[in-house]
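Supplementary Methods. Inverse-folding protocol.

Structures were first reduced to a discrete structure-token string of length 232. This string, shown here, constituted the complete conditioning input.
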């Protein structure tokens, strides 16, 4: 979920992307990558950052032989959606920091919403849980995606399915339930650097409380979801 380097220190030089790519390729399972602000937006030269991200992480999952039914989103093909085992997943290019191009950001968020709406309609009745992956910690820069009558929050409120939102911008762990007055939403911010292992998220749509989250290390608690979420 982004920030595969630190732009201030690494200056978005090719070596930083190369090292991160090499590490991620050691994974034994298909790995999907979306950009963070440090990967493109905060680079001294955003065109250089985008060029390096495309070289090392574009269509990263194709490095594995897998059968995930990914839907890519045209020219925004770093974003994706797919349905698997009753769970509808979305990964969107949504970065933190001040947008380097406001018009590009607005157009990207608009396209994301259109694609998400289309997949909700296409898979109606086929999913019981929604998962949203993105980089940015939500802020006023992202209100055009989340807010309003046609925004993501309105969509999931209407659909009523349990929704877990995961992002990595803050680089520290916290949980928020029921934001925006929506009871079927939990938002989790992930740690960065080497402060903790990758979290485990298990989703079993046959269970009454289908989403279970573990931080996998002693002393690292999960308040919302260690015994399943949402609690009925």
């Amino acid at each position: 979920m982004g920030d595969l380097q630190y732009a201030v220190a690494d200056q978005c030089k090719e070596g930083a992307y190369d090292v991160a790519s090499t590490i991620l390729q050691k994974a034994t399972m298909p790995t999907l990558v979306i950009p963070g602000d440090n990967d493109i937006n905060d680079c001294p030269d955003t065109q250089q950052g985008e060029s390096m991200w495309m070289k090392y992480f574009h269509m990263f999952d194709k490095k594995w032989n897998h059968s995930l039914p990914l839907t890519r989103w045209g020219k925004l093909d770093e974003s994706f959606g797919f349905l698997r085992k009753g769970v509808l997943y979305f990964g969107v290019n949504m970065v933190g920091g001040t947008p380097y191009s406001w018009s590009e950001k607005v157009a990207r968020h608009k396209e994301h919403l259109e694609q998400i709406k289309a997949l909700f309609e296409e898979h109606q009745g086929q999913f019981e849980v929604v998962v949203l992956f993105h980089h940015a910690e939500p802020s006023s820069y992202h209100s055009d995606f989340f807010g309003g009558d046609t925004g993501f929050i309105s969509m999931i409120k209407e659909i009523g399915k349990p929704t877990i939102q995961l992002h990595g911008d803050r680089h520290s762990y916290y949980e928020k339930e029921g934001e925006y007055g929506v009871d079927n939403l939990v938002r989790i911010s992930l740690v960065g650097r080497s402060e903790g292992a990758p979290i485990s998220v298990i989703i079993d749509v046959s269970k009454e409380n289908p989403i279970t989250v573990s931080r996998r290390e002693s002393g690292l608690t999960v308040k919302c979801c260690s015994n399943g979420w949402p609690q009925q």
